[in-house]
Amino acid sequence: MENCLFCKIAKKEIQAAVIYENDYVLAFNDISPQAPVHILIIPKIHISTPADINPENSSEAGRLVETAAAIAKDMGLEGYRLVMNCNEIAGQSVFHLHCHMLAGREMKWPPG
Ligand code: 5GP
Ligand code: ZN
């Protein structure tokens, strides 16, 4: 999608520190990390928000979680937190589906 930051990152029009990539997903370091490990995992196709997941495209969402598991195994992470913000009120600022993968410090719950 035109003028979408993460589409541009997926197409390598904007640089990012890539952690993992396959035909469907791209994982790269968040520019403003909130934990020692803060990776964003995105589908290469444009989906705006988690609310736009449906039976036709839900495999894209599954791939994000699957990718996080593979990265965690590769990095030897003991545990991690996955976050998907949906719409502005929940903290979404980039409207291309993404999963935050946070690790490397203790995580509190509830998050606030
Ligand atoms: P959201 O607030 O939409 O859930 O998360 C968007 C995330 O994208 C934020 O954590 C923000 O730091 C990150 N971000 C915004 N612009 C860029 C960028 O140009 N490059 C990278 N690597 N991350 C970005
Ligand atoms: Zn996009």
SSE layout and pairing:
Elements: H1 5-10, E1 18-21, E2 25-29, E3 37-43, H2 58-75, E4 81-83, E5 99-103
Brief sketch in words of this structure:
This protein has 112 residues and is of the alpha+beta class. The chain contains 2 helices and 5 strands.
Percentage of residues assigned to helices: 10-25%
What sequence of helices (H) and strands (E) makes up the elements? Answer: HEEEHEE
CATH architecture: 2-Layer Sandwich
**N-C termini distance:** 32 Å
Number of separate domains? 1
Question: Tell me, what's the shape?
Answer: globular
Ligand inventory reads:
guanosine-5'-monophosphate, zinc ion
Name of the CATH class: Alpha Beta
Range of strand content: 15-25%
Q: In this structure, how is the largest beta sheet organized? A: 5 strands, antiparallel
For the biggest β-sheet, the strand order reads: 1-2-3-5-4
| Structural class by SSE content | alpha+beta
Tally of extended strands?
5
Q: Stretches where pLDDT falls below 50 for ≥5 residues?
A: none
Q: Oligomeric state of the chains? A: single chain
Q: What is the mean pLDDT?
A: 97
The CATH fourth-level homologous superfamily: HIT-like
Number of alpha- plus pi-helical segments: 2
Here the CATH topology equals HIT family, subunit A
Q: Write down the Rg.
A: 13 Å
